[in-house]
Amino acid sequence: MNTTRTHFNRILPPVAACLLVSLVQIKAEPSQPLKNRKQAMTAFAELLKIPLASPPVSVTVKSTKQEDGLIIEDVSWKALDGDEPFAYVIRPTTATKPLAAIVCLHGSSGSRESEVAPTFGMGDWIRYGDKEPHQRLLGWARELSRRGFLTLTLTQRGLDKRLPDTNDQAKDLLVRGRTLMGAIVQEIRQSVTYLQSRPDVDRNKIGMTGMSFGGITTFYTWLVDDRIAAAAPICGGVGSVDVFLKTGRRSYHGFYWWVPDMLTLGDQGDFAAALAPRPLMLWAPTEDIGMPKEGVQRFLKTARPAYEKSRAPKALVVHQPPGEHSFTLEAFAAMEQFFREWLKP
Length: 345
Known about the structure:
Shape: globular
Number of strands: 11
Distance between the termini: 34 Å
Strand content: 15-25%
Radius of gyration: 19 Å
Strand order of the largest sheet: 1-2-3-7-4-8-9-10-11
Largest sheet: 9 strands, mixed
């Protein structure tokens, strides 16, 4: 995930710096409990400073090709502020009826190209702007399409070739009364609008998943858009914002991760609980620096009773294997199984 560093000792006197840190650490108690799904969705959309209504979209198909038994479309559209998101849409050539669709979202070191790479598995990838490769899971969105899903793989705002970077965009939007997370979520929601308009998609069976940056944007999009039938954040910084403030390394998450005023209404688990029994899977390795296991336990303590009360305890799936912040083959297998359960053909 993107990082920002704030050096208090360089810009503030020691006493002022200590006071500021103390104020940040004060837990904001929710002003009122989130009572139901509609209230939670409305409240979170207001935090993101976006309309709750589904956003319109007009998509341009730039090119279409066939390879590897798949049809691959390169598409783009205009975001609500004029920016241009772009994505690959992939479906099997053998499909004869509408398919379940999955929106696939990469992390800060990935791209739509890494997700649709021809070879599926762990491999080296050079991030845009870097010179040295790093290990990551390649081709996983293409692999989902090989296995029968239609996938839409979006290059996320502020990442890869979509400059400026997230921190610069966050600063610009904040002074204009908007949030970067809200801008990101809205263009992801536009992709859902587009998928629902396609005759080769079952409009009631649209899932969403993503790694790291893509995991948290998956979760927050799921919170405000009930057209998403199931969501599976992978290492997505989902757990507890309050716990992360107390135990995590704050510089790890860029500006986009922090939603202003959120804890005045509830933590991540409170919002998820209000949305029960909508299907949700978390892949949360116990040593993931971006989502401390104590935060995941706080999330479960809040959300699981709500799913049990809704008589759908199996709709909340949380995997906590040993390991660090990484999209593994085991995570892919768990995610695929989850979607086969909740996006049944």
